[in-house]
Structures are given as structure tokens and as C-alpha cells.
Amino acid sequence: MPTTDVSAPRQTVSQALKKYREMRDFAITSEPKGSARPKRHNPPIFVVQEHHASHLHYDFRLEMDGVLKSWAVPKGLSSEPGVRRLAIHTEDHPLEYALFEGRIPEGEYGGGVMSIWDSGTYEHLENSSYEEGRLRIRLAGEKLAGEWALARTSPDAKQWMLTRRRDTRG
Ligand code: MN
After folding, report:
1. Where are the beta strands (DSSP E) in the chain?
2. What is the mean pLDDT of the segment spanning 29-41?
3. Ligand 1 geometric centre to CA of 170 (Å)
């Protein structure tokens, strides 16, 4: 039986984006500020952005509860089953960020060029939960297709492991 943490109150989109907005000056960066009631997608979307900041990394984002849950993946996602990649949880981003490409000015948070590496939709697989830090998903993108698992390394850690799974679909 799937278990879900029902004790945690759902945040509004604006509450979820508070940290994202505090970290940025929208008079300087062209990144989206995000709306309070963004257009949600069904099925939900994912995006992987290639981010040439101080260190090249890939930002993996999943639409959930009206925002993009986000992880910085230094080595990017592997399509080879069993390969694990470190994924560092970062602040929730607005849904509008899934379309963002461009240069974040130097000196601003994340300064450097951001481009979309892949995007598409995803399916949240059963018996898995973001809140519990054990999430399983099936991606349907241009480059990425199939199952991945995202596992938090400890209850309050920002570090997760992102692992390509053999597709269990029959
Ligand atoms: Mn980044």
C-alpha cells in the first residue's frame, strides 16, 4: 500500500517560491519571477537544463504541486541502468522556468549560460513519494526515456542519488 505523508501541510506556490525569489534580483536577471497560479500540466513536465555556471552542471526539474522541484546534477543523468548520479536538492523554481534559456548575469546567483538539454513529461510511479525521499519516475523526453529513482541519502539531507532503472513496464 502506498504511503504518503499527509501531516505536512501543502504550501502555496508563492510560499514555495519565497526562497527562489529572495535569492534573485529580477531587475538584473531575466529569469522568470513566476506567477502565483501557473498553468499546470497533465501529465506533469520535466526539464534538464545545462548550466554553465562557475562549474558546469545539469539542473533536473520535476513539476510538482505547481512548482519545479529542482536538483543540481554535476554529471547529468545517465541512461545506463544502475548508474547512480549525485543530485543536490536546490530551491523550488517556478513552473515558467522550464522554458528559460539565456545568460544569467555574472555576480548574480547562478551566473552563466543556461540552455534546455532535454524536456518532456513524466509519470510518478506508485509506491514512491517525494516527501519520503524515495521517488520513482518514468521520463518521456527527447533524449531521456524510461525509469529513474531519486533517493534522499538521509531525512534532512540535500543530497539525493539519481539512479537509472531498468524499465519495468511489460
Ligand atoms: Mn544550476
Report:
1. 45-52, 56-64, 67-73, 84-94, 102-104, 112-124, 134-141, 145-152, 159-165
2. 96
3. 35
